[in-house]
Amino acid sequence: MKTFVIGISGVTNGGKTTLAKNLQKHLPNCSVISQDDFFKPESEIETDTNGFLQYDVLEALNMEKMMSTISCWMESSRHSLVSTDSGSTEEIPILIIEGFLLFNYKPLDTLWNRSYFLTIPYEECKRRRRHKEHQLIESLSQHIRSSVIIYIAFCLLILV
């Protein structure tokens, strides 16, 4: 079966997921597979000499599982109308695969009908990263606060 596969890679926080999701909204029956969904459990992530978890390397990702997911999509993909180079329209399934290390994994190289590498200025990348980390910290703080409140309420029930 003929398929159309788009690879979107680039810098961390560069807009890959946002672009892929927006394309999916505008391309009927288009599917998106995100490399972020294939990180190994934290217990399997190596640390550097400073003790920081190394998420920015291929070894942190379960690429075999990702390839299996892609294969499953290829076998059971839905169809979209796609304009071909000759100007005609064909019904072809579309898959967008996005992730920061896609083009570092050679088995994917044969899949791409189109591939794009997104970049943004370094300062913008840092700003976006800080914003995401701030959101994560806020989310964790709320979770911890609610857990503490539940724990205190439980302790008060025991004392009563």
TrEMBL record:
Pfam families: AAA_18 (PF13238). Keywords: Kinase, Transferase. SUPFAM superfamilies: P-loop containing nucleoside triphosphate hydrolases. It comes from the Eukaryota. The keyword Aminoacyl-tRNA synthetase does not apply. Gene3D superfamilies: P-loop containing nucleotide triphosphate hydrolases. GO terms for molecular function: kinase activity. The keyword Kinase applies. PANTHER family: URIDINE KINASE. This is Nicotinamide riboside kinase 1 isoform X2. It comes from Leptonychotes weddellii (Weddell seal). The gene is NMRK1.
